[in-house]
Specification:
Blueprint lengths: L3 H6 L2 E5 L6 E6 L3 H20 L2 H17 L1 H12 L3 H27 L2 E2 L10 E9 L2 E5 L7 H12 L3 E5 L5 H13 L7 E3 L4 H9 L4 E5 L2 H14 L3 E4 L4 E5 L5 H13 L9 E7 L3 H14 L18 H16 L3 E4 L15 E4 L6 H4 L6 E7 L2 H9 L3 E2 L1 E5 L3 H10 L4 E4 L16 E2 L2 E2 L4 H6 L2 E9 L14 H15 L3 H11 L10
Parallel strand pairs: 5-6, 5-8, 6-7, 8-9, 10-11, 10-16, 11-14, 13-14, 16-17
Antiparallel strand pairs: 1-2, 3-4, 4-20, 9-19, 12-13, 15-18
Helix pairs in contact: 2-8, 3-5, 4-5, 5-6, 10-11, 17-18
This protein binds nicotinamide-adenine-dinucleotide (NAD).
Length: 525
C-alpha cells in the first residue's frame, strides 16, 4: 500500500469534459512498480481462470452483457461527458458494438476452443493422430486510445478473457473514467478483480506495461507511437497486435445513388467529429457527378447540429483537445493556401465552448496537400474528382495507410472489381465504418495501418497460442527413418518417394515393392 505522502507526490492526470473543460476527476498515475505488481497479480490469478470450463467463463460474459444492457444510459452518458461525443453515438458505436462483441464471444467460444483434428497427408505419418490445441497466452496488455474509449478496449478485453487470459489495461490518459467503468462492470459480473486491472496514466505508464511481464500486447493508437511500441516489443520478442491510424478513401462512381452516397460521406467523415480511425478522410468522385455530389454534401453538412455531446439533439460534439483542433486548422489552412475550394466550415466554433470546429467541406484537393496525405482526425471532408476507375484505384492506393476504404456504386460487379484492387484491411461497398460494428468481421490494417487483427475469429486467434499435439498409435514400433542408414536404406527411401510421387502407375508399383524392405530393416539402431 502507498502512503499518503507518496500518493501526494505522484503524477496525476485530470479527466475533463472536452466541451467545457470542467474537471471530472483527478486520478493518480500508476508507478512502474504498481504496473509490474498489477501484471504479477494478473499472472497469479490467470491459471485458475484458464482452468474453468468454457461455460463458466462464458457465464461471466453473459452477466457482463446483461449489466451493460441494463446500465446503457449511464455508461453512454459517461462516454459523452469524457469523450465529448453525442450520446446517440455512444449508444450505437460503443455500447451496441460491445453488446454484440460479447454475443459473438459467448456464441463462438466453445467451438473456437474445441481441439481441431489435423489429418496427415504423408503416408509415413498415417500411424499418428494430430490435433491443434488453443491455449491462452497468460496476461494480455492492452493499450488503448481515447476516441472509442469503451468499444475498443472492451471488445479486445472480452476476446482475451473468454479464451482464458487475464488483462491489464492502460487506457488513454484522456478517458480513464470510461475504462474504470468497464472494469467495474466486469467485476460486478463476477470476474476476479486481478483478471481485469486498469493502470492509469499517460505514455510512461504504457511504457512500463510494455516492459512488464505481459505475454502479448494489443496496442491501438497512432502510427508514431505504434512504431515506438513495436521497437520495444521487438527487442523483447513480445508478440504485439498494432491497430494504427488510417486515411480511408471513399470512391464515388457516377452510377452511385448520390443522395445516399453524400449522406454516407457526411456521416462517415464527421462521426465522432471525424476522430475515428475508419473515418472517410479522402473522397474521390467521378467527374460527371462531382459538382452535384459536392452540392448535396454542402447542403447536408450545413444542416448538422453541433454542440455538447450530452444534448439529445446534437449530431456532432467537440474535438477531444486543443492539439487536435490545431491539427485540423493546419490541414485546412494548408489546403486552402494550395488552392482547395472551401465550401463549408473551415473555422473554430468558439461560441459553443472549447475544442469545437465547424464541419468542413473542401473541394479540388490534391495529394500535395496535408489534408490528403496525413491523418487529419477531424470533421473535414476533402473531395477530389477522377475520370476512369483505374485513376480512382491509383488515388485510393496512393497512401502510406491501408486501414479501410469504401466504393459507392449502383453496379455491384464494378464495385467488387475496384474493391479487389484496393490495398486495405477492409473495403466496404455502399457503406463505410460499419464493418467495425460487425462482430464477426476482422478489424485491422494493411501497410502503416498496423499488424494483426482484432474482432471476429481472427481477433480470437490473436489471443491464443496454438499448440500441435501428436499421438503415435504404434508406440511399440521404431520408426523407419531412424538410425541405421546405409545404401540399402537410401534406395528404399528413394523407392518410397517413387511410390508416392512418380508419374505412371508402373513406376509407383515398382517404388512400393522397393520400399517395403525398409519396414524390415535389420541394421536399425
Ligand atoms: P496515441 O498513439 O497518442 O496513444 C495511444 C495510447 O498509447 C494511449 O493510451 C497513450 O497513452 C499510449 N502511449 C503513448 N506513448 C506511449 C509509449 N511511448 N509507450 C506506450 N504507450 C504509449 O494515440 P491517440 O491519440 O490516443 O489515438 C488516436 C490514434 O489512434 C489515431 O491515429 C487513430 O487512427 C488511432 N486509432 C486506431 C484504431 C484502429 O483500430 N486501427 C482505432 C482507434 C484509433
Amino acid at each position: 500500500m502507498s502512503t499518503i505522502t507518496e500518493v501526494a507526490a505522484r503524477t496525476t492526470i485530470i479527466s475533463s469534459d472536452p466541451a467545457t473543460g470542467e474537471k471530472l476527476a483527478e486520478l493518480a498515475c500508476a508507478t512502474p512498480e504498481e504496473v509490474h505488481e498489477a501484471v504479477r497479480r494478473a499472472r497469479q490469478a490467470q491459471p485458475s481462470w484458464q482452468a474453468l470450463s468454457v461455460a463458466e467463463r462464458v457465464a461471466v460474459l453473459k452477466r457482463f452483457q446483461r449489466k451493460l444492457s441494463e446500465r446503457r444510459d449511464q455508461v453512454a452518458t459517461l462516454i459523452s461527458r469524457e469523450a465529448g461525443k453525442p450520446t446517440a453515438e455512444a449508444m450505437t458505436t460503443e455500447i451496441l458494438v460491445v453488446l454484440d462483441a460479447a454475443e459473438f464471444c459467448i456464441r463462438t467460444a466453445h467451438s473456437f476452443l474445441r481441439d481441431e483434428p489435423l489429418p496427415h497427408g504423408n503416408l509415413a505419418m498415417k500411424t499418428k493422430r494430430g490435433r491443434l490445441v488453443r491455449e491462452p497466452y497468460g496476461v494480455i496488455g492492452i493499450i488503448a486510445p481515447w476516441n472509442y474509449p469503451f468499444s475498443l478496449p472492451a471488445t479486445e478485453t472480452l476476446a482475451a478473457l473468454v479464451v482464458g487470459n487475464a488483462v491489464v489495461l492502460k487506457p488513454s490518459e484522456l478517458t480513464p473514467l470510461v475504462a474504470l467503468e468497464l472494469q467495474k462492470l466486469l467485476v460486478e459480473a463476477g470476474l476476479h478483480p486481478d483478471l481485469i486491472q486498469v493502470v492509469i496514466g499517460a505514455g510512461p505508464v504504457g511504457g512500463a506495461l510494455l516492459e512488464s511481464e505481459i505475454d502479448k500486447l494489443v496496442f491501438t493508437g497512432s502510427v508514431a507511437t505504434g512504431k515506438r511500441v513495436a521497437e520495444i516489443a521487438a527487442r523483447r520478442l513480445l508478440p504485439a497486435v498494432l491497430e494504427l491510424g488510417g486515411k480511408d478513401p471513399m470512391i464515388v462512381l457516377e452510377d452511385a445513388d448520390l443522395d445516399v452516397a453524400s449522406s454516407g460521406a457526411v456521416w462517415g467523415s464527421m462521426v465522432n467529429a471525424g476522430q475515428t480511425c475508419l473515418s472517410i478522410e479522402r473522397c474521390y468522385v467521378q467527374r460527371s457527378v462531382y459538382e452535384k455530389f459536392l452540392g448535396l454534401c454542402r447542403e447536408k453538412i450545413e444542416k448538422l447540429r453541433v454542440g455538447e455531446g450530452l444534448g439529445s439533439e446534437v449530431e456532432m460534439g467537440p474535438l477531444i483537445q486543443e492539439r487536435q483542433v490545431h491539427t485540423v486548422e493546419e490541414h485546412v489552412t494548408d489546403a486552402v493556401t494550395r488552392g482547395a475550394r472551401l465550401l463549408a466550415g473551415g473555422r473554430r466554433m468558439s461560441e459553443l465552448g472549447l475544442n469545437f470546429y465547424a464541419p468542413t467541406l473542401l473541394a479540388d484537393v490534391t495529394h500535395e496537400m496535408r489534408v490528403m496525405s496525413e491523418e487529419t482526425f477531424g470533421p473535414v471532408l476533402p473531395v477530389a474528382s477522377f475520370d476512369a476507375d483505374d485513376d480512382a484505384v491509383a488515388l485510393a492506393n496512393d497512401s502510406e495507410f491501408g486501414l479501410a476504404a469504401s466504393v459507392w456504386t449502383g453496379n455491384r460487379k464494378r464495385g467488387e472489381a475496384i474493391a479487389a484492387r484496393i490495398k486495405a484491411g477492409t473495403v466496404m461497398i455502399n457503406d463505410a465504418i460499419s464493418g467495425f460494428g460487425i462482430a464477426e468481421a476482422p478489424h485491422g490494417g494493411f501497410k502503416q495501418s498496423g499488424i494483426g487483427r482484432t474482432h471476429g475469429k481472427l481477433g480470437l486467434d490473436e489471443m491464443v497460442q496454438v499448440k500441435y499435439v501428436d499421438v503415435d498409435l504404434l508406440p511399440r514400433m521404431p520408426k523407419v527413418w531412424w538410425y541405421g542408414y546405409g545404401i540399402g536404406f537410401q534406395r528404399q527411401m528413394s523407392s518410397f518417394m517413387d511410390m508416392l510421387f512418380a508419374s505412371g502407375i508402373g513406376a509407383r508399383i515398382k517404388g512400393a515393392l522397393g520400399a517395403v524392405g525398409a519396414l524390415r530393416r535389420s541394421n536399425r539402431i
